[in-house]
Design goal:
There is one protein chain. The protein is mostly helical and 207 residues long. The protein is 71% helix and 0% strand. The chain has one domain. The model has no long low-confidence stretch (mean pLDDT 86). Pathway: Lipid metabolism; phospholipid metabolism.
Length: 207
């Protein structure tokens, strides 16, 4: 019972369970009456929400896409902010960040399936390494406008965050950049099918 009342454990469980909430799936079903798990790329992220809902309601698709990005980012920051308000140590904060992204990518509510983790990763990075993340977000937006390939833009934005953190000597307060690398690895790993399509020239654009 002591295990279940340990504050760290409670935060870790909360981070994973909140991170697992499939907002894209919920919004698309609630407002557009479509199951994005059965259509498009079958991902629960904003890109698939936009792609699938756009087929029947373009104006609604943009709104739901934006709402999905915001909510997926917020679920990464929500537990973190509470933990920070309670003065939890940096080690706990970074563990919360990793578990939030894991929850989104391997949701307990979807049989350990999920999204690509970009928005949730952006949310936790924005709290913990804000300057590198803002630089990465600018790169993400710029690449999205120019390239119009969601996966490539996301990966370039993520890479910019990591490189900016390293170049700015933004050493994490836990004494290692390992948690940042773990989050980046999870996101890269979830994008392997996209990377293969990019190499083959088969990755679709978001118009």
């Amino acid at each position: 019972m002591d295990f279940l009342t340990n504050s760290n454990v409670i935060f870790y469980l909360a981070a994973y369970l909140v991170g697992s909430i499939p907002f894209g799936l919920i919004l698309a079903k609630l407002f557009a009456n479509v199951n994005i798990k059965n259509e498009g790329s079958k991902s629960i992220g904003a890109t698939n929400v936009l792609r699938v809902v756009k087929q029947t309601n373009p104006s609604l698709a943009k709104k739901l896409g934006v709402a999905t990005v915001i909510l997926d980012a917020l679920k990464g920051t929500a537990v973190l902010i509470v933990a920070m308000l309670l003065n939890m140590p940096q080690e706990t904060l970074w563990a919360i960040a990793v578990l939030s992204v894991l929850g989104h990518c391997y949701s307990i509510y979807l049989g350990l399936e999920g999204g690509k983790g970009v928005a949730t990763g952006l949310g936790v990075f924005l709290i913990l390494i804000p300057i590198p993340t803002l630089i990465g977000a600018i790169a993400w937006i710029f690449c999205a406008k120019v390239l119009k390939v969601s996966s490539l833009s996301s990966l370039l934005g993520l890479t910019t965050v990591v490189l900016s953190a390293i170049l700015l000597n933004n050493q994490l307060e836990v004494g290692s950049n390992a948690p940042m690398y773990i989050i980046a690895f999870i996101i890269y790993y979830k994008h392997i099918p996209n990377i293969i399509r990019l190499i083959k020239g088969e990755e679709g654009k978001v118009i």
